[in-house]
Amino acid sequence: MEPDFQKMNGLVPVIVQDWRTKKVLMLAYTNREAWELSLKTGEAHYFSRSRKEIWHKGKTSGHVQKIKEILIDCDLDTVLFLVEQVGGACCHEGYTSCFYRLLDGQEVRIVEDRIFDPKEVYGR
Fold first, then answer.
1. Which of 19, 25, 44, 85 has fewest C-beta within 10 Å?
2. Could you give all domains of the chain from N- to C-terminal order, each with its CATH number?
3. How far apart are CA 68 and CA 28, in angstroms?
4. Strand 53-56 and strand 65-72: pairing?
5. d(CA 36, CA 102)
């Protein structure tokens, strides 16, 4: 069984959680090619909507996502990857999760410590 790639013009959202803590790390998208690469390699591959290409999560940073389990929702149009996040950081900004900002009333606060400096890892 595979996701229904027809519903959203070939893309399916992927919720990514840490397999031990169940903390939500990110939301990304997969297409058939990225899906097949993920299944084949056991590491998360996604489709970048901004760059319009497949990307292997962690290829540049070394912070790959090793897939431990995959769940598909009842409508076959959303996927959940439970992953081992190598290096402890998922976000390209250097945080454990892409959800490191908390809306607190009218203010936004950063609620995680940075694991790495993006300038050192990505050179930007």
1. 19
2. 12-87 (3.10.20.810)
3. 17
4. unpaired
5. 34
Kind plus residue range of the DSSP H or E element containing 40: helix 32-41
Reference 59, options 71, 44, 69, 48; nearest CA is: 44
Q: Which three-class secondary structure state does DSSP give residue 99?
A: coil
Query: How confident is the model over 46-73, as a mean pLDDT?
Result: 96
The verdict on pTM exceeding 0.90 is yes
State pLDDT tens for residues 68-112. Answer: 999 999 999 999 999 999 999 999 999 999 999 999 999 999 999
Write out the two tokens for 86.
């190598």
- The Cα 85–Cα 16 span in angstroms is 10
**Phi, psi at residue 45, to the nearest 5°?**
-125, 140
**Phi/psi at 36 (5° precision):** -65, -40
Q: What's the DSSP call for residue 43?
A: B
